[in-house]
Amino acid sequence: MDPLVRAALSVQELARRGLGTAVAALFGAMLVLHAGGALPPSVAVVVAGAYGASLGFRAYRRLRRIAPRKTAVLDADLFSHLAVLVFLVILHAPGGLDGPYYPAVYAFVMLTAAFARPVATVVTACFAVLLEAGLGEFAFGRAAKDVLPHAVLVAAFSVLNLLVFRAEITRVRRLSRARLDGELERMREDARSYRLIGAPTSAVDPTSSPFHPAPKGDPERLLRSSVDHIHQTLEFSLRLLRRSLGLRTAALLWATDGGSVLTLRAISTDDPDVYRGPFRAEEGLFGAASRSGEPIALADSRARRHVPFYKTPPPIESVCVVPVRDHGSHRGLLVVDRTERSPFSPADLALLSGVSDFVVRAIENERVFVQLERAKVEQGKLYRAVDCLAAATTEAQVIEAGVSSARELASFDFAVVTLFHRNGREGVHEICAASGEGTAELVGQTFRHNGGLVSMVVTNKHPLPFRGDYDGEKQMVFTKRLKPPAVPSLVVLPLSVHDNVLGTLVLGASQKGAFGDSVRTTLEVLSRHIAVSLANARMVKRLEDLATTDGLTGLYNKRTLLELGKQKIRAAARFDHPLSVLVCDIDHFKKVNDTHGHDVGDVVIKGFADVLRRTKRDTDAVGRFGGEEFVLVCEETDGEGAKLLGERIRQELEATTFHVKDGPLQVTCSVGIATFPEAGTDWEQLFKATDEALYASKRGGRNRVTVHAPGKKKGAAA
Fold first, then answer.
1. Torsion sign across C-alpha atoms 560, 561, 567, 568
2. What digits encode the pLDDT tens for the residues 571-585?
3. Which class for 79: exposed (0-12), middle (13-18), buried (19 or more C-beta within 10 A)?
4. What is the pLDDT of residues 475-503, one digit of tens each?
């Protein structure tokens, strides 16, 4: 049956995708009838209107890309409709299919090959050939073989245009991408040289790693804006300096590769032929100024040999090189020259030194601005994470919100959350959640405290391993049997609250160095928030349990069971289903307390609660009403079914032996049963009938089950 269903679905999907082309074929058939004179004028007008509406609808869907994944289908629908329009125009042009306007078909096919998907181009070309064959056969009485030359030309135009045009588009896109990537790389290199971002190290920078995609804040745009602002500031400063001192050229060379290489970063000059570098920083005046840290000036004909960024020898007679230093470190050189052989005065040197300091301050301001913007983005992520965690009220919701928030802060391939349950001095770890390929079999696994990374993080309350570098052959995360997917980067973060470790968050990435210092610090803050939310969820769960369950037995308390009982009775009345209530009371329980003490009485009550918990069905609600009295509310259960359940409870308790200090102890119970709606239509009536049946069991000798019999005297048993 399954292959037939799949085949039927495939045929249905194929028919749905070809519906637009089928509609175009219908309009093509109408065109053939119209060309043969068999279509009345009124019908032709209606068909023309329907065709215009269909064409407009196809064009709208294609331009708006209503279904982006089905672009080929949209192209086939639109261009097959356009093929009908092209042949309609040719038929009404002078000469018809044999006239001078027929090559418009070739132009249309070329247009289709240029803008439609290849599959749509093939469909449209075949449609055009078939449409021409139909027109020739039924409207003009031609043989089908007469269309063959035109079909060959249509195929040739389609294939050639498809290959040439697509190849040219691919080439242009490749060149554009290479040019764009080059510009971005130069921008990043400028940003690194200005120390707006760090150089690529093991701490992966989000702006330089394809593994860590840019968030919606777009740090690339921030860096680009900062670099452009720095360049504008430098160019304006050099232009102003050049006019103030009557210079021929003012240029700023920036140090890269540890200060051994200089590149031209900004220049103001009338010389259009300038070489941007790189230049060696140890040679000539550049090296002297870099080593001394003081301005170096030269005023004679040798000056032109010390300015290497001119491609042709310049007519300069004096040059001055001023080092640019940032917090004592050499960052670059400010180079100025003149055509006159006049030395630079102390005032000129002071102005040049001031400009170099201004350059450093401008870059420092942008650096601080970028850091503040990044901090704002990271804080925004943490704020959103805190909001998500604050909205979570259960452990499962906290874990899901925590992993989702971690994905916004760092990029990783899998995540595992473990919870630590203290059991004596050692404790047990439980893998409660996992996401990512190869982690499904880990969920639900438990392991004892050992020497693995998870256990060490719980013990030391500190993330491991160091720098996030993981070697699966040498390091153990959970146990030797339970292993995470093989990745080069992994970090285990403690979920701790006030030195109490609740568990760990394990993140793994296939990118080496994915958990650098900056990312790891933010993840540590997030892990603490997750731990606080996890502790709050556990506290809420504990409060809910205290409010709804009995503290001794763990069953529902009286208030909760009353609410459940009334709800179940309303549901039974609405759907006309049977419902039974059982009241179980331990026989001679006061004698147990008086003889053995209240501690033994508590043991008996908890043992009876265990019996009820084992015996009841999943849909039954059981609770302790107080003392030794327990109540069960059983859905979809009539009197006979309730009596069988009561007998199982009575026999199970009678066969249970409690081992106390005075020796083995056995107790029995009495059970009263009432059924809805025979014994009552609301909770008060039903419970009163159940209580009467219980007292009938007590009066009848105890250790028995009594079902309330409506219509008989009070306390009568069935």
1. positive
2. 999 989 999 999 999
3. buried
4. 899 988 888 888 889 999 999 988 888 99
